[in-house]
Amino acid sequence: MNRRQMLAMLPTIAFSTQIEKAAPGKARLRTAICAYSFREALKAGKMTYEGLVRYAVEHEVDGLDLTVYWFPEPLSESWLVNLKRLAYRNAVEIYSIAVRTEMTRSTPELRRKEVEEVKKWVDVAASLGAGHIRVFGGRVPQGASEAQAAGWAAEVLAQAAEYAGRKGVILGLENHGGITERAETIIKIVNQVNSPWVGINLDTGNFRSDVYRQIEMCLPYAVNAQVKSQIRDEAGRVIESDWDRIFSMFARAGYRGYLALEYEAKEPAETAVPRLLKRLRELAVKYSA
Q: Which domain holds residue 84?
């Protein structure tokens, strides 16, 4: 088979497989920081994305999950590739970006716009060398049922995944309220799309009930994880998250990927994040062994 014949086969190869679930085996846990942990500093211009790369080096973190909300406008290709170069020269992987989406739009025209929005960010991810994008499902529109809204989200995800797959970018649907409030529904959406380019961006702090069971349900589909320091108990109270329990669950599931600290608690990030990253590193080593 010559090179031209091989290239002609690539689209078929990319889209002939179905959803990939984690297989049991040795876990490979890697540490990361979500840019959202420093949202106030980024908003105020007290921290930059370049500064985040240096912060990751200082705190011995493997990767960055870059929330795009504070990217410069207009966004230029030169800014993206220079950030990519800085990360590479510092051995920090920009492996993910996080964007806002509302895939449950009630009209075909609005859903097409959502697909185009995701495509735009797929190109940005490709420029940065990121293999993953965090996306949101959305709320149930007034007058629609949850089943309808879930179907619309699956429709948008499926179309966006066709483009993302050509760029080598995985879309991770986050459990972020709305139609993804419950593990059962988010799993149903991902299974309906049935693409190797779609999985779950598993946020350990976003479920509102039966938290650990729901995390465990999502683990086979997890393509990225955002770890929070707190969860809500059955009474709705904010309590400390049991990271040892959570990391052991990831290990048993054979998860191989990043666990990014997404800090949202009241203590200032400047003091809390270094302490939490130290614990994150310790547990990643412990449960990868």
A: 24-229+236-288
**Is a pLDDT exceeding 90 seen at residue 20?**
no
* 12 in a structural domain: no
Q: Closest Cα partner for 163 from 186, 133, 201?
A: 133
Task: Find the helix packing angle between 211-218 and 183-193, rounded to 10°.
Answer: 10
Q: How many domains does the chain have?
A: 1
The CB-based long-range contact list for 141-150 (8 Å cut-off, 24+ gap) reads 141/104, 141/105, 141/106, 143/106, 144/104, 144/106, 146/179, 146/185, 149/104, 149/178, 149/179, 150/104, 150/179, 150/185, 150/188, 150/189, 150/192
In this model, does residue 3 exceed pLDDT 70?
A: no
Q: Would residue 145 count as lying in a domain?
A: yes
Q: Which residue has the higher pLDDT, 48 or 14?
A: 48
Instruction: Quote the tokens at residue 96.
Output: 């993910």
CATH number for the domain spanning 127: value is 3.20.20.150
In a domain, 125, yes or no: yes
| Residue pLDDT, tens place only, 183-210 | 999 999 999 999 999 999 999 999 999 9
HSE-up (13 A, CA, CB side) for residue 108: 0
Instruction: Specify if 127 maps to a domain.
Output: yes
Q: Is the pTM value of this prediction over 0.85?
A: yes
Give the containing element (helix H, strand E) for 222.
strand 222-227
